[in-house]
Automatic annotation (TrEMBL), chain A:
It holds the Pfam family FAD-oxidase_C. This is CO dehydrogenase flavoprotein-like, FAD-binding, subdomain 2. Its cofactor is FAD. The lineage of its organism: Bacteria, Bacillati, Bacillota, Clostridia, Eubacteriales. PROSITE patterns: FAD_PCMH (PS51387). SUPFAM superfamilies: FAD-binding/transporter-associated domain-like, FAD-linked oxidases, C-terminal domain.
Automatic annotation (TrEMBL), chain B:
The keyword Oxidoreductase applies. Keywords: FAD, Flavoprotein, Oxidoreductase. This is CO dehydrogenase flavoprotein-like, FAD-binding, subdomain 2. Pfam families: FAD-oxidase_C (PF02913), FAD_binding_4 (PF01565). It comes from Acididesulfobacillus acetoxydans.
Length: 459, 433
């Protein structure tokens, strides 16, 4: 089938206005939040499960591959098209099918934006815990396929923990439901779990059953500023050991404190080594006791400034630096590469000093942003994309950072996924036996390698 | 399996660690199957050697912590993991433990308690359950609303695959999305994907306070209404379990009616306030007696009673149990509707409801009628947005939707995965997916 025929058949399935095959369309959906890009044959916007089934059948018949896509904000090259493929853009399948607050379930289509769900839930006093910083733009399908995390995941867990069931279209066009509306509906293997984080390589999601929770009755936000990163990480360990599970333990290092201060002029001390944003939630009666314990722990760890927000405006003020930080590095250098590794909590200080050492060796500026409670770090490597030699050094630093994380008993990715970007490092983390198991999973679902080929691993 | 094979196995794990007389094997087996031997490997290498041998000889293998399901195991080999029962590491800084799979679940809990740590999952069977078995079965238990399902506590493992290869995945990081999620996928696979030989699990610090409330309700609908009131008021205890009179008597001999058991774990201030509020709600809802259990001994005894009951449901009574879920707030209406099938549930042999999860287990008068009952119960559960659990339930759902294609899709996918991992069909012959 020629490309022109394929486009015509796509238009028959979803209607002309739901297919884009011109240059603008191809370029618009040829990239994601990495520096990578590619070109496929077309982008198609299905509106229903039926559409998706027909697309899959056509792909089988005409011999092209499918690249599922949500909002395209992933940081792993997970939606980059390549050659004889069609991008399946789910952004028009965005209905909320059911919100059942009494039974803690919401049923949604995968193209629904995380924020839009949160807004509806909030009206009913509920929320969906996984909250990637990009939640205003990202789709729940994309969140699921990457198993996204976010600041409040330390207490509440990641996307995996909030998916009760799915409707998916398999690569042979069959529609199946996995799981259901509760914890105990999985038949045989936990198919839901293997689909979470599968980066669009196993099946196309068409419906998601999510677990939702009532908004907590009380919340407290604190800011702690330290001379040294070690003190901040001591604080984190001690809080956890005291049996307190904060929703959030966000850390920024000296470089990022400075770029944030450049952007906001909020009055952060420029010589501080690290800051921690600590947030707890729960029963109102328990807040004071926990705040007191946390304040004591911070003090013991030689905190130089400790603030607790008393009003909503003060909460916003404390969050300000964290909210602007990624954008703020642009004042320093035009490009950044956002890394995503996790190490065991006890290795946190070693990883921080290791990253600073790598920065020095590779002659790069690196700022460290971390979800410190769970050891998930996002080193921001700053550079200028136009300087080829520097880009080379960025790649080398990336590799060093990954290798160090693994050496410290960590992992290549805490929440952004492998995609194209990190697949070359996958064998550093996994043995040939594990790699063979990945292949077994892929081949069970998608023996013809129709879905998102070349992502996660080459087969 | 010939004598020669048994001898080779004895050569691998030591003569004293293989049992092959039927009378001696009995204590390690459940079910009617007749394996030729029971072997107790002492380390990963031995497990891998045994599996390789099984591949050569086309020998079936089933695994258990202390007791092995013998269904489908005629002429095969039962592996009892009880010698691999060590705690290899407890890491306080990262709140993890590394253990061998044959470690008894209750023993693990005891060791952790001494170190002021907790492994939340409930044992499937307190007397015989192992940590390996806990993850191999991987159910959500009655604390899952607060503590999340069992799979949440598995961070990594070492496993001998059906071809004898050794798979290692996971690390001490809670956040980990590298590669496909083999870690959580293995939970609940019931020994079909491989044999766990080491587990890395997540621990928690203990809650500041623990206490329980036990409320007696003459009327089952009123007990359900009382539980619904808690949920409506956004009171979510750690456990909220309901037992009908037949089962209640086993836990509290003094009880007259249905028992609602509430577990509260958390910070002191809120826990005490909640206990008062809940007691008030239960009185208003018509409970004849609400008892607060605050001292450690009574608290431990009460929940041990619950765990023992759960163990019975999972073993002795398993063939008589139908397990289904509906939304938590639909419990009252679903149980009301259920009486049309079962008659008065107050007089029924057994009924357990986990209120926050909307999970119900019905203990039938006899095993023979299970399939027929499950079909009826599933239709009922579906009308309340749920279904009978497990793959039988899933099949019934597909049947009810008249969706043969969906069932075929699920079945062929499950079969495909199993064949990919175990092409010779060696492991867990008694488990059908
Ligand atoms: C500024 C910024 C901040 C970020 N912060 C966070 C953060 O805090 N935490 C975090 O975890 N991530 C974060 N991310 C990464 C990214 O936003 C997440 O990975 C997000 O979940 C991607 O969602 P998306 O809708 O953009 O999906 P896409 O990027 O479009 O796709 C992601 C993957 O999902 C697959 N996919 C999408 N829809 C479907 C479907 N219906 N069926 C099957 N597969 C599908 C795609 O093939 C792809 O592999 C951030 C990104 C940016 C740019």
């Amino acid at each position: 089938m020629t490309e022109k025929d394929v486009v015509e058949r796509l238009e028959e399935i979803v209607g002309k206005k739901n297919v884009q095959a011109d240059k603008i369309g191809l370029t618009s959906y040829g990239y994601d939040a990495t520096l990578l890009s590619g070109v496929g044959m077309a982008t198609v916007f299905p509106l229903s499960t039926e559409h998706v089934v027909k697309l899959v059948k056509l792909a089988n018949e005409a011999g092209f591959t499918l690249i599922p896509r949500g909002a395209g904000t992933n940081l792993s090259g997970g939606t980059i098209p390549d050659g004889r493929c069609v991008t399946v853009n789910f952004s028009r399948m965005k209905k909320i099918l059911d919100i059942d607050t009494e039974n803690f379930v919401a049923v949604v289509e995968p193209g629904l934006v995380n924020f839009d769900l949160q807004a509806e839930l909030e009206k009913k006093g509920f929320y969906y815990p996984p909250d990637p910083a990009s939640y205003k733009a990202t789709t729940l399908g994309g969140n699921l396929a990457e198993c996204s995390g976010g600041p409040r995941c330390f207490k509440y867990g990641v996307t995996r923990d909030y998916i009760l069931g799915l409707e998916v279209v398999l690569p042979d066009g069959k529609v199946i439901q996995t799981g259901g509306r509760n914890f105990n509906s999985e038949p045989g293997y936990d198919l839901t779990r293997i689909l979470v984080g599968s980066e669009g390589t196993l099946a196309l999601l068409t419906k998601i059953f999510l677990r939702i929770l009532p908004l907590p009755a009380a919340k407290k936000t604190m800011l702690a500023i330290y001379n040294q990163v070690e003190d901040a990480s001591q604080t984190v360990s001690d809080i956890v050991a005291a049996g307190i599970v904060p929703t959030t333990l966000e850390m920024m290092d000296n470089l990022l404190i400075n770029t944030a201060e450049d952007a906001t002029g909020a009055g952060l001390p420029r010589d501080a080594g690290a800051l921690l944003i600590i947030e707890i939630d729960g029963h109102p009666e328990d807040m004071d006791e926990q705040v007191e314990t946390i304040a004591g722990i911070c003090k013991k760890a030689r905190v130089r400034e400790f603030k607790m927000a008393r009003t909503a405006a003060e909460v916003d003020q404390l969050w300000l630096a964290r909210r602007v930080v990624i954008g703020s590095v642009a004042r320093r250098r035009p490009s950044y590469s956002l890394q995503d590794i996790t190490v065991p909590r006890s290795m946190f200080p070693n990883m921080v000093s290791g990253i600073l050492q790598i920065a020095k060796e590779r002659n790069l500026e690196v700022g460290i942003l971390a979800h410190a409670g769970d050891g998930n770090m996002h080193p921001l490597v700053l550079f200028d994309q136009r300087i080829e030699e520097e880009v080379e050094r960025v790649h080398l630093a990336e590799k060093d950072i990954c290798a160090l994380a693994l050496e410290l008993g960590g992992t290549l990715s805490g929440e952004h996924g492998i995609g194209l970007l990190k697949k070359k490092y996958l064998t550093l983390e996994f043995s040939p036996v594990a790699m063979a198991c990945f292949a077994k999973i892929k081949n069970s679902f998608d023996p013809r390698h129709l879905l998102n080929p070349g992502k996660i691993m080459n087969l | 399996m010939s004598n020669e094979t048994v001898n080779r196995i004895k050569g691998l794990v030591g003569e004293g660690n293989v049992v092959d007389s039927p009378s001696a094997m009995a204590r390690y087996l459940k079910g009617q199957g007749r394996p030729l031997a029971v072997a107790m490997p002492g380390n990963t290498a031995e497990v891998a050697e045994i599996v390789k041998l099984a591949n050569e000889e086309g020998l079936k293998i089933a695994v258990g912590g202390r007791v092995v399901e013998s269904r489908g195991l005629d002429g095969g080999l039962a592996l009892v993991m009880s010698r691999m029962n060590q705690v290899l590491e407890i890491d306080h800084a990262n709140l993890t433990a590394t253990v061998q799979p044959g470690l008894a679940h209750t023993e693990f809990s005891r060791i952790l308690a001494e170190q002021n740590l907790v492994f939340p999952p409930e044992p499937n069977v307190p007397k015989t359950g192992s940590v390996g078995g806990c993850f191999a079965l991987g159910e959500a238990d009655s604390q899952a609303f607060q503590y999340m399902p069992v799979r949440t506590y598995l961070l990594g493992y070492e496993m001998v695959l059906p071809n004898g290869d050794i798979l290692e995945v996971g690390n001490k990081c809670i956040k980990n999305v590298s590669g496909y999620d083999l870690i959580h996928f293995a939970v609940g696979s019931r020994g079909t994907l491989g044999i766990f030989t080491r587990l890395l699990v997540k621990l928690l610090p203990p809650p500041a306070v623990k206490m329980a409330l036990v409320a007696d309700f003459a009327s089952l609908p009123k007990a359900c209404q009382a539980m619904a009131t808690l949920i409506r008021r956004r009171i979510f205890p750690t456990r909220l379990n309901l037992l009908n009179p037949a089962l209640a008597a086993g836990i509290d001999p003094g009880s007259k009616g249905n028992l609602v058991m509430v577990d509260l774990t958390g910070f002191k201030n809120s826990t005490e306030l909640l206990a008062e509020e809940i007691a008030g709600i239960f009185h208003l809802a018509g409970s004849s007696e609400v008892q607060a259990v605050k001292e450690a001994e009574g608290y431990a005894k009460l929940w041990q009673g619950w765990l023992d009951l759960r163990g019975e449901l999972n073993t002795t009574w398993a063939e008589r149990v139908i397990d289904f879920n509906v939304g938590p707030m639909k419990l009252a209406a679903a149980l009301q509707a259920l009486t049309e099938i079962t008659g008065d549930l107050g007089a029924y042999p057994g009924l357990v409801a986990e209120g926050l999860l909307g999970r119900v287990r019905l203990l039938l008068p006899a095993a023979g009628e299970r399939e027929e009952m499950a079909v009826k119960v599933n239709a009922l559960a579906m009308s309340f947005g749920g279904n009978v659990s497990g793959n039988f339930g899933s099949k019934l759902v597909c049947r009810a939707y008249n969706d043969a294609e969906m069932w075929e899709g699920i079945e062929s996918l499950l079969g495909q995965i199993r064949r990919q991992f175990d092409p010779k069909g060696i492991l867990a012959p008694g488990v059908s997916l």
